[in-house]
Amino acid sequence: MIASSSVETSSLPRCTSLRIGDRAPDFSARTTHGEFIMSALRGHWVLLFAHPADFTPVCTSEFIALARSAEEFQQRDCALLGISADSLPAHLAWVEAIHTQFGIQIPFPIIEDPSLAVARAYGMIDGTAQDSATVRSVFMIDPSGTIRSILNYPATVGRSVPELLRLLCALQEVDRAGTLTPESWQPGDRTVAPPLQTQAAVEKAGAKWFFQPAGKTRP
Ligand code: BEZ
């Protein structure tokens, strides 16, 4: 059953706690770019990011930064998808205000979720929330529809768009090369080899067997 933020919500769990490796729940919704079905994005990477409310300062800063980096996500075959409990008219007014006041076009769709059907299905509700504000959740979903990363930030702290881009690049590199990305890895940096599995491999690798560089990656 496809969840819908604007039509049918009764079949959805009240609140789920998704984990890395789970399938991203499917849903249909109205967005600033028209009707949308999540499963239509299978075959592409998806960055689904929830924000607490339209017309708020931290959210505006995040949207401006995401708009400025949108081409880089697109080059990496990653669709950007915003969501909040605000209505479609509120989203449209906010997008228009960002354009007129700051000269920035928001090039990605923003989902309306007034019933919180999608927010509940994805566990985007802050446990301490007094209202419909969703936590600053980020779901990185791979082309097979599997959740590969989940980030949660409080309403008071903006997310780092360069870090979201780095996360995408790292996941794509891990999939491509079968290696691992170390702390603060950036595209072009060396990756590290996966943990060794046998005593023979450990003996062959020497004293630094638990921390071995892998091959040089492409920029
Ligand atoms: C903000 O984006 O600035 C914000 C949103 C909700 C609560 C507080 C701040």
UniProtKB/TrEMBL annotation:
Instruction: State any GO BP term from the record.
Output: cellular response to stress
SUPFAM superfamilies cross-referenced by the UniProt entry = Thioredoxin-like
Residue ranges of the Thioredoxin domain?
A: 18-173
Residues annotated as the enzyme's active site: C59 (cysteine sulfenic acid (-soh) intermediate)
**EC number(s) of the enzyme?**
1.11.1.26
- Which transformation does this protein catalyse, written as a reaction? a hydroperoxide + NADH + H(+) = an alcohol + NAD(+) + H2O
Q: Which GO terms fall under molecular function for this chain's record? A: NADH-dependent peroxiredoxin activity; thioredoxin peroxidase activity
Name assigned to this protein: Alkyl hydroperoxide reductase C
